């Protein structure tokens, strides 16, 4: 007995191995005239009608969003801890005096070094202050910059010596 599939118009042959309720070409279910319906689990006619799987990317996006918000909201607490640690470290930093001029390139390098590393210092311009000039001369200053770190006097720009003396207070 020949059955024609309403979906793909395939004519069923007696030699086909598919069940009686299923088209052997497109594998979609159909009911024979006067026959019974396919079993309950096989009533779906397309893959689009398959039940949606639970899970997917939605759960992960929500989890990622929640974690991101938690990190964002906790950031001020971490920053306060870091600021407190820096304050404790900078409280022990020795006093630094920089005797310099405005036009000196090595004086600028000294300023940049201190700023880049978060080092507190006091600058005295020897061309604008006679008190600064007399202090500079008392320290044996012959040129600029003259840097005083605690009790150590550094004459001229010497980054290696500065790094050695200020190692605990340098960033990175």
Q: Beta-sheet strand percentage?
A: 5-15%
Largest sheet: 4 strands, mixed
Overall form: rod-shaped
CATH class category label of the largest domain = Alpha Beta
Portion of residues in helices? 25-40%
The computed structural class is alpha+beta
Number of domains: 3
Strand order, main sheet: write it out.
2-1-3-4
What's the CATH H-level homologous superfamily of the largest domain?
Glutaredoxin
The pLDDT mean sits at 82
Number of strands: 4
CATH domain fold name of the largest domain: Glutaredoxin
Task: Enumerate the spans where pLDDT stays under 50 for 5 or more consecutive residues.
Answer: none
Q: What's the helix-strand series?
A: HEHEHEEH
CATH architectural label of the largest domain: 3-Layer(aba) Sandwich
First and last CA, distance: 87 Å
Separate helix tally: 4
What Rg, in angstroms, do the CA atoms define?
A: 42 Å
């Amino acid at each position: 007995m020949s059955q024609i599939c309403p979906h793909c118009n395939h004519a069923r042959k007696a030699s086909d191995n598919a069940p009686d309720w299923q088209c052997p070409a497109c594998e979609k279910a159909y009911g024979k005239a006067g026959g019974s319906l396919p079993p309950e689990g096989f009533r779906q006619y397309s893959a689009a009608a398959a039940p949606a799987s639970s899970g997917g990317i939605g759960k992960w996006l929500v989890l990622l969003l929640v974690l991101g918000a938690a990190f964002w909201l906790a950031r001020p607490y971490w920053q306060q801890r870091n600021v407190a640690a820096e304050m404790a470290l900078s409280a022990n930093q020795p006093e630094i005096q920089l005797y310099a001029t405005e036009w000196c390139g090595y004086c600028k390098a000294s300023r940049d070094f201190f700023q880049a590393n978060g080092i507190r210092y006091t600058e005295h311009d020897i061309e604008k202050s006679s008190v600064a000039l007399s202090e500079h001369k008392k320290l044996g200053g012959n040129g600029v910059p003259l840097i005083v770190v605690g009790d150590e006097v550094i004459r001229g720009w010497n980054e290696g010596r500065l790094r050695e003396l200020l190692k605990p207070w340098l960033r990175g």
